[in-house]
Amino acid sequence: MTAEVSEDVTAGASSAPGTPGAPGRYAPKPGAAPLGRMIAAQAALETRMLLRNGEQLLLTVIIPSLLLVLFSTVDIVDTGAGRAVDYLAPGILALAVMSTAFTGQAIATGFERRYGVLKRLAVSPLPRWGLMTAKTLAVLVTEVLQVVLLTVIAFSLGWSPEGGPVPVLALLALGTAAFSGLGLLMAGTLRAEATLAAANLVFLLLLVGGGVIVPLDRFPDAAQSVLGLLPISALSDGLRDVLQHGAGMPWADLGILAGWALLGLGAAAAFFRWE
Fold first, then answer.
1. In a domain, 87, yes or no
2. Can you say whether residue 187 is alpha, beta or left, with left for phi > 0 and alpha for psi between -120 and 50 degrees?
């Protein structure tokens, strides 16, 4: 009996980590989860936080819906020939992308940084670009819900979209990447209060001057050339070309959005501060 116990102890000792012999049989094995699983878990958490925030829902759902209904039913802005909803629906879809990917994400991330949430995430195995990827995925999930809701409202107002889904999806994806990068750049470099003020100010300015409701040809020629290079203008004009006029792939608008996406995401990855 004593010999058997001694043999068991010796076998266990030889299996201990750091000693010669068979490897240890510890379960679960300590260490970080796979990167894909970490990003998926963080994206699910970010999505739940976005959907639970009443202020975010006001910005991302209620305001775009009210603007769509108001300007489609009341003759306030001259949108040219045809029904107002055919012009407004693509622009409101672009506004929904901007409100979620840029304004909402910048404000939420800025206050997470102020309250120390990002500081705690910084000591986790999740890399900085992994956090940005998770936040962008959460934005995409929220945008799917926005697009479905706004499409239903637009159809109820008599909207008759043209064009195919592939150009629309390409525009929405690149628009999300562009606005997400700019929002994260703002949230990761400015103070939370400054981010709150700047994000709301940019939202209002781009709502007026980004071709969402007021056509760009209503502005002076010099201003049109500058406003046309903004990401909101490229997104709204591209969606309008496809959904209102039945155009094919809007390569020029996609190129502008791709440039903003590379610039915003690259700058955010380089300059984003956890605290």
1. yes
2. alpha
Q: Whole domain around residue 209: which residue ranges?
A: 34-271
Per-residue pLDDT of the chain (275 residues; tens, 9 = 90+): 444 444 444 444 444 444 454 555 656 666 667 878 888 888 888 888 777 776 777 777 888 999 999 988 887 777 765 788 999 999 999 999 999 999 988 988 888 888 888 778 777 778 877 877 888 888 888 889 899 999 999 999 999 898 889 999 999 999 999 999 999 899 989 998 999 999 999 999 998 888 898 888 888 888 888 999 999 999 999 999 999 988 899 999 999 999 999 999 899 888 888 77
C-alpha distance across the termini of the chain, in Å: 61
In a domain, 62, yes or no: yes
Contacts of 25 (CB under 8 A, 6+ apart): 15
pTM score of the predicted model? 0.81
Domain assignment of residue 25, yes or no: no
